[in-house]
Design goal:
By secondary structure, the chain is mainly alpha-helical. The chain has one domain. Helix 2 runs antiparallel to helix 3 and helix 3 runs antiparallel to helix 4. The two termini are 17 Å apart. It is globular. The longest helix is centred in the middle third of the chain and has 28 residues.
Amino acid sequence: MIPPMTWVDAPGTPWWFVVLLAVAGGAMGEVLRRRLAGGGYRLDDEVGPLPRVSSRVVPIALALLWGLLAWRFGPLSGWALTPAYLGFAFVAVALGWIDADVHRLPRGLTRPAYPLLVGQLAIASLASGDWEALRRAAVAGAVLWTIYFLLALVAALLGSGFGYGDVTLAGLVGLATGYIGVSTTLVASYASFILAGIYGVARLVLRRGTRKDDIAFGPWMLLGLLLSLVVQVRPLL
């Protein structure tokens, strides 16, 4: 039986592979930037100025993400695992931008990401023979989706801004992190709440907002996911 994959077991990644995917990520990021720059994702009732952050950060962010993921995953699972996370990174950047702007995670992006991610992870398991990782990913996705669904129900009763788009995204985060290990899922979950809390406190201290302001949680979930993939952790469970 192939043991659960951990970062400490990952083989080295050729430098040219990292550079190649970083360049490819920048090119794909430019395509995404052009789609996001005009705010075409907005609905009729979503008005106001576009994000103050230039959309030109999108290709830079995706280039860094693809290079980082290439470095982390490299030839694991016969080079079949890297594409799963590259595709999800593309969707994640789009989701993070949109949620930060209009506080909405479009179903047109989150729902198709499920079969895409599951299919690519299945290919990786087929290449490596590690079907336990795929089962673990499915369980982590289901558990995280359920937890966030319960949180959304409580938030609805309290009149909070926590939405069901976050629930759908939580399932994806569980899938992406659970494939690596339960500890990765835990790090992603804790990090998202900690980072969102720090951001909320900073807004209050700097007088950029009030306690009643809704904060887009999606970007922090995705940033927590990234941190969990970058930080080397040994399996806790």
